[in-house]
Request: fold
Amino acid sequence: MEIRVNNVVRHYDGVDAINDVSLTVQSNKIIGIIGRSGAGKSTLVRLMSLLERPDSGEVWFGGERVDNLDKDALTSRRRRIGMIFQNFNLFSSRNAGGNVAYPLEINGVPKEKILPKVRSLLSLVGLEDKIYAPISTLSGGQKQRVSIARALATDPEILFCDEATSALDPQTTRSILSLIKEVQAKMNLTVVMITHQMEVVRDTCDYVYVLEAGKVVEHNTTQGLFSSPKTPLVKDFLANLAPSGPEGGMLLFSGDKGHYILRFAPGATGKPILSHLIKKYSIDMNILGAGIQTIDGESYGTMECDITGDPDSLREMFEDLKKENVKVEEAGK
Ligand code: ADP
Ligand code: MG
Reply:
């Protein structure tokens, strides 16, 4: 389901929370809306998810204008929208299965159909064995899985995620993001990820809108945003991006993996070792990813690269690197 927002404005007594925002969310894509706290993200998502009406402007789902629907039409429209939040919004009085059953109950799904549906939703999110678990016994990641199952109960076409991973640790964040990507593909969902974390955009979004003081200040494909950021806000987001990736602390410059991984011990990161050896042995090097982790004030570097040259020169160069406290690994070994 394509979503279009045209010149939407929303004020709260004196605050221009959303000030003339236009954007398009392509059907069956994951888009990001990123901004700092107070930028207007939650307000925008409330307007797009029809929880609030804009003061002016329009919201369209496919060919239908939806910001001005009457009460009944709005209620049935809202059923086709799933939402998940940072703080999960689960009922602590109901167990995991009871939470997933809730939207089915209020939508009048026959009782005998509810249990099998709840089971299949919980199994989709990897919690089939937690159907009777009280919410208080679940971890943050499990709670977010329950809320994803609940959001999908009414077979929505659109899923809004407002800071869905902001309360989770990095590892749990990755697992929730991959679950969101998995269900997006499986159920042909249009997903809108609201976040203040560039990692979330990097790891999930096809396209991104950057919100600042209620306005879109930059928008691009995720790759375009990373390769040619324009506003100081985006440059700052990128500069503060936590290193991460398959090698733990890796900023990937390319989708490709290098043949070699170099690990720089503390003390090895401050010297121009590589440029020196490249000249000495006249080899070629293509750096595909790199990162530095600081542990107790010491820097540990990791670099993924391709190195090409005469085999004897390579061997000698690797020997020299070893002496400089740089470990050379062949990828996958
Ligand atoms: P974000 O989600 O990006 O942190 P919000 O959309 O929550 O930003 O808030 C944007 C601005 O609108 C803030 O200045 C906030 O104080 C204000 N705001 C949001 N909701 C309300 C409200 N219901 N009443 C008054 N001001 C609000
Ligand atoms: Mg918010």
In short: Residues 3-222 form a domain with the Rossmann fold fold (CATH 3.40.50.300). Residues 209 and 219 are 4 Å apart (CA to CA).
